[in-house]
Amino acid sequence: MTVTNGIMVLRVDHCPESSVSESRTNARPVRLAPSILAADFTRLGEQVRQAADAGADALHIDVMDGMFVPNISIGIPIVAALRRTIDLPLDCHLMIVDPERYLEAFVTAGANHITVHVEACRHLHRTVQQIHDLGVTAGVALNPATPLAAVEEILPDLDLVLLMSVNPGFGGQTYISGSTAKIARLRRMLEDQHLQRIELQVDGGIDRANIAEVVTAGATSIVAGTGVFNTRPVAETMRALRHAIQRAQP
């Protein structure tokens, strides 16, 4: 991942046709995006700098509106404050209804990437186009009960697909075990369509105990909140996650 003119660019080498296990574990690095939802907001600047120093590839920012999900979290002012604080790409996950109303404001505040939910967009293709027109990368998220078929038609237009492995709205939930098979199915779908360039991101309940399972299934981007923040020092938790990923890869 590189940042060019403030835009997060996901770069990968071409993946030759091969077995699923080869392409998902050998061809691409696995990126870690700590979710600030689990951070101590009285020490937010300090903790995100610790995550950056520990090798975070991006910061994941969970935006909730109390309507699409049963919780209200953070918004545009936090994105702007983080942009002033840190150079990492800001990965904004909009768990809000009609997200197209706020896309420009998030990009102006400093977002490098925006993910919207297929369940929250009436005209998903138009919303994805709008994100790209603003000069940043675009992703689409699916809730645990949403089938992969919901994004099949729009896959070629995406930079990232986010599979929720918990029901969105709250941090600290337990990983839904059925998510692993869903990750593997999406990995096969991407490879069958020669779309290995698309990041396969997974969010929810991931820690050092199960991250290897998620990576082996095909994830290339991991969101971790309580798996990074406020259980042990950030450098220690990040190091433990990296070691677990390395053990999952040949």
Amino- and carboxy-terminal Cα gap: 22 Å
Query: What's the CATH class, please?
Result: Alpha Beta
Q: So how many helices?
A: 8
- Overall tally of domains: 1
Average pLDDT number: 90
CATH architectural designation: Alpha-Beta Barrel
Q: CATH superfamily name?
A: Aldolase class I
| Percent in strands | 15-25%
CATH fold type:
TIM Barrel
Biggest β-sheet: count, sense, barrel? 8 strands, parallel
Which regions have little confidence, pLDDT < 50, spanning 5+ residues?
1-26
* Class inferred from helices and paired strands: alpha/beta
How many strand segments?
A: 10
Helix and strand element order = EEHEHEHEHEHEEHEHEH
Please provide a written account of the structure.
It is a single chain. The chain is of the alpha/beta class and 250 residues long. It has one domain: Alpha-Beta Barrel (TIM Barrel), CATH 3.20.20.70. The chain has eight helices and ten strands. The strands form two sheets. An eight-stranded parallel beta sheet has the order 3-10-9-8-7-6-5-4. The chain has a two-stranded antiparallel sheet with strand order 1-2.
Q: What's a quick, concise take on this entry?
A:
This protein has helices spanning 20-26, 44-53, 76-85, 103-109, 124-133, 179-192, 211-217, 234-248, and strands spanning 2-4, 7-9, 31-34, 59-64, 90-95, 113-117, 137-142, 160-164, 199-203, 221-224. The protein is α/β, with parallel strands linked by helices and 250 residues long. Helix 6 packs parallel to helix 7.
